[in-house]
Specification:
With about 425 residues, this protein is α+β, with helices and mostly antiparallel strands. It contains 12 helices and 19 strands. It binds adenosine-5'-triphosphate. Adenosine-5'-triphosphate binds next to helix 1, strand 2 and helix 3.
Length: about 425
C-alpha cells in the first residue's frame, strides 16, 4: 500500500470485486488495512449479464461479503451487447461503472486486483504488438482514470499466492469461465504464455522486464516534466503557450514526449495522438526555430489547434472539436469536454446548459460588455471557453469573470483534464467529501 501511496487519513477505498480469487484476496487484505486506519471499504461487483448464472454468482459473493462485514454493491451492465469485441466492451463498461460507483460513494481510490501473472500477460501482449517503452512498463501500480485514482496493490504477488490468501482466511471464490474461453484474446494469450514458458520466457522474467521498463519510463517522465516546467505555461482557460526554442534544444525523445503531453492535456484525450503526426508537428516547430517562423504556419492535431504566436506557440482546443451542449444542475458537478469541471451555482433556480462560448457568443458578449475584451486569452481560445447558457443566451462565462446582471454568484469552472501536464493526477475532494 505504501507503494501505491497517497491516501487520506481515514482512507475510503472501493475495490472491484469480480468474485475471483484475486479480487477476493485483495478485499480481505484491504479490509484489514482500511480497518486499522479507521477508513471504509466498499466492494463493487459489475454484473455483465453475459452468463445466466452471473447474477446468482454476484449475490453469493455479496453474501460472503456480508459475513465479512464488507459493504457490497452490484452494478449491472445494461443495454445492447456487441457481438464482436465483447470482452473489450465489457471491460470498458466495467471500468465506467466502477468509476461511477467511486464518484457516488465519494471514494478517491479504485483498487483492482491485477497480479504479477496479469502483468506478465500484459507485457506479452504488448511485446507481440511491438510496444515502445511506455507499453513495456506494463500496468502501473497506481494511475488515474477520469477523476479516480486506480491502484493495483497486488501487482507484485502471484495469482497462486493470492489464492493461498483466500484459503488461509477460509473464504471461497468463483472461477471465471471467460478465462478458459478461447474466444477471448486474453484467454488465447494465456495459452500462448503457457507455451512460451517452456522457452524460458517466464512470468518472473516478464514481470522483471516490466519493472525495469517502468523505471526507465519514470526517468523519461522526470526529464519531460523538467522540460515542460521550462518550456510550457498552462493557462486556466485550458490552453498552453509553448517555447519552441526550449523544445528544439531538448533531446528529441524528451521534446516529443513533452509535446504529446501538451496535446493530450489541451485536447482532453487520455490517449496520446499518433507518433508520426506528433513527429511531423515537432519537426515543423523545430524548423520554425532554425529556418524561421514562416516555415511553421500551424496545424490541427488531437483536438488541438497549434498556432505560432508572439512569444511562442499557442496550443488551444480546436473550436470544432469541443464537446456539445450538456445540461447542468445547480450545485452539481459536470465534467465537460473532458477538460473542465463545471458546477453551476447552487443559488440558481433552474438547470443551465454548458456549451462552448463560440465565435458568435464571444462577439455578442463583447458587444454588450466591452470590459470583458481586456481578457488576455488568445483569440483562438475564446470561442472554446465553457459558457453557461439559458434560453439561447450566455448567462455566465466564469473563466472570463463574466456574469449577466441579476445572475447569482458562485458558478465554478475549473480546468481539470484527464491527465495533468506533468506528474500523477490526484483528484480534489470537496468540502462535502465528494470528488469535484
Ligand atoms: N465483474 C467485475 N466486477 C468488479 N470488478 C471486477 C470485475 N471483473 C474484474 N474486476 C476487477 O478488475 C481486476 C482485473 O480484472 P481482469 O483481469 O478481468 O482484467 P480487466 O479488468 O479485463 O483489465 P485488463 O484487461 O487490463 O487486465 C480484477 O482483479 C477485479 O479487481
Amino acid at each position: 500500500m505504501a507503494r501505491v501511496g497517497g491516501f487520506e487519513r481515514a482512507p475510503r477505498i472501493l475495490v472491484g470485486l469480480s468474485g475471483g480469487g484475486d479480487s477476493v484476496a485483495l478485499t480481505l487484505l484491504l479490509r484489514r488495512w482500511v480497518a486499522a486506519r479507521g477508513g471504509d471499504l466498499l466492494a463493487v461487483a459489475v454484473d455483465h449479464g453475459l452468463r445466466p448464472e452471473s447474477a446468482a454468482e454476484a449475490a453469493a459473493v455479496g453474501a460472503a461479503m456480508a459475513r465479512l462485514g464488507v459493504p457490497h454493491r452490484v452494478m449491472r451492465w445494461e443495454g445492447d451487447k456487441p457481438s464482436s469485441g465483447l470482452q473489450a466492451a465489457a471491460r470498458s463498461a466495467r471500468r465506467r461503472l466502477l468509476e461511477l460507483a467511486c464518484a457516488e460513494a465519494g471514494c478517491l481510490h479504485l483498487a483492482l486486483a491485477h497480479n504479477r501473472d496479469d502483468q506478465a500477460e500484459t507485457l506479452l501482449l504488448r511485446l507481440s504488438r511491438g510496444s515502445g517503452i511506455d507499453g513495456l512498463a506494463g500496468m502501473a501500480a497506481s494511475g488515474t482514470a477520469g477523476l479516480v485514482r486506480v491502484i493495483r496493490p497486488c501487482l507484485e504477488f502471484s495469482h497462486e499466492r493470492l489464492l493461498a490468501t483466500c484459503r488461509a482466511a477460509g473464504v471461497g471464490w468463483v472461477e471465471d469461465p471467460s478465462n478458459r474461453n478461447p474466444r477471448f484474446a486474453r484467454a488465447r494469450l494465456r495459452a500462448v504464455g503457457d507455451l512460451l514458458a517452456g522457452e524460458g520466457l517466464s512470468v518472473d522474467r516478464l514481470a522483471d522486464t516490466a519493472r525495469r521498463a517502468a523505471r526507465a519510463r519514470a526517468a523519461l517522465d522526470h526529464a519531460t516534466a523538467a522540460l515542460l516546467a521550462r518550456a510550457a505555461s498552462l493557462h486556466p482557460e485550458g490552453w498552453i503557450r509553448l517555447d519552441p526554442v526550449a523544445l528544439a534544444d531538448a533531446p528529441e525523445e524528451i521534446g516529443l514526449r513533452a509535446l504529446t503531453r501538451c496535446l493530450t492535456v489541451v485536447g482532453g484525450d487520455e490517449h496520446p495522438p499518433r507518433d508520426a503526426a506528433v513527429e511531423r508537428l515537432y519537426g515543423g516547430m523545430c524548423d520554425s526555430v532554425t529556418v524561421g517562423r514562416a516555415s511553421f504556419p500551424g496545424c490541427t492535431l488531437a483536438g488541438c489547434r497549434i498556432a505560432p504566436r508572439r512569444g511562442g506557440v499557442v496550443i488551444a482546443r480546436e473550436a470544432t472539436a469541443v464537446a456539445g451542449p450538456q445540461q447542468a444542475t445547480p450545485g452539481e458537478r459536470l465534467w465537460w469536454d473532458r477538460r473542465f469541471i463545471v458546477i453551476p451555482s447552487a443559488d440558481r433556480t433552474a438547470p443551465v446548459t454548458v456549451a462552448a462560448l463560440g465565435a458568435a457568443g464571444w462577439a455578442r458578449l463583447v458587444a454588450d460588455n466591452p470590459d470583458v475584451r481586456g481578457h488576455d486569452a488568445p483569440a483562438l481560445v475564446r470561442p472554446t471557453l465553457p459558457a453557461l447558457w439559458s434560453d439561447g443566451v450566455v448567462v455566465a462565462v466564469p473563466s472570463l469573470g463574466f456574469r449577466r446582471a441579476g445572475e447569482p454568484p458562485g458558478d465554478v469552472v475549473r480546468f481539470s483534464p484527464a491527465l495533468p501536464l506533468a506528474g500523477p493526477a490526484f483528484p480534489v475532494v470537496s468540502a462535502r467529501g465528494g470528488i469535484i
